[in-house]
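User: Can you model how magnesium ion sits in this protein?
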Amino acid sequence: MQNIEKAILELKKDNVIAIPTETVYGLAANALRENAVKKIFELKKRPSYNPLIVHIGSLKELQGIAREIPEKAYKLAHQFWPGPLTLVLKKGNSVAPAVTAGLDTVAVRVPNHPLTLELLGKLDFPLAAPSANPFGFISPSKAEHVLSFFGDKLNVILDGGECEKGIESTIIGFDENEDPVLYRHGSIPVEAVEAIIGKVKFNTCHETKPNSPGMLSKHYSPIAESYLTTDVKQMTEKFKGKKIGLLLFKEKITDLPHLDQEVLSSTGDFNEAARNLYSAMHRLDAGNPDVIIFEKLPEKDLGVAINDKLKRAARK
Ligand code: TXA
Ligand code: MG
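Assistant: Here's the modeled complex, given as structure tokens:
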């Protein structure tokens, strides 16, 4: 039985389940229970310094989770929640310490998926949830991806179909002057955030102790060796004799018919490309190529976030 009632029972036992969101699937547990949250870290083999996002059912539930909330945070929440925007705010008292990895801030969002909103509405606690992939692997945009990663370890995987957005939420925090800072590129382009609250600064990335491990350079890696380039054809020549997979933006390369090729959007639509990104990566990787070559997208709109994911997945 893969239904909400069963999900609630599991969560009340401090167990981990998989939930759909509009971005990617998550591994969820009671965010107020240290014991439950630790199980997420174990299952995901995630380093304990890498904090999780708290998922709530509505803006009203922010009380207790965060404090001293900047006006600009409210503006963003009103505009984008439920939706793929995560806010990093000063931490309230109720959240289990493991969720925030000891930081004084907490990441929080209201996900926009009917099944998960229904689940949150029936719970009296919020859900801590990272993406439902083992640390360093491709994020899951379908229930079957979660099943292949964790099938034997989860009692409930709520199947909400294919994720509508397909890439993770955009993460925005605030500096000591309450000026907005981008922690991670995601489903909402930075321009859309800036249209609401003005200029957003970019967080500088530190490889070893990042402010937001979304910034860790190999976080989205598929298993195969992979490369990001604007000139896919030229790059294939470097790997003659190897089994090559291609991840392309708009069209296949017709004079390379023998290669495994995935196209993200034949009309060049960024939303469609984002929605197809992780499924295409999973399919390419399942073919066990020696090398995967990613085509760089135009650096505008959601292309920026997709390129960012590809850059992190590429080994070089
Ligand atoms: O779309 C999403 O955000 C998905 C779905 C499941 O909601 N979740 C997700 O979680 O991508 P995860 O754990 O894969 O990524 C969470 C990101 C990490 O990069 C983490 O470092 C950052 O959020 N984060 C969490 N708490 C933070 C904090 N207090 N300060 C800065 N970054 C934080
Ligand atoms: Mg993740």
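A couple of observations from the model: The chain has a mean pLDDT of 93. Residues 236 and 244 are 7 Å apart (CA to CA).
User: Helpful, thanks.
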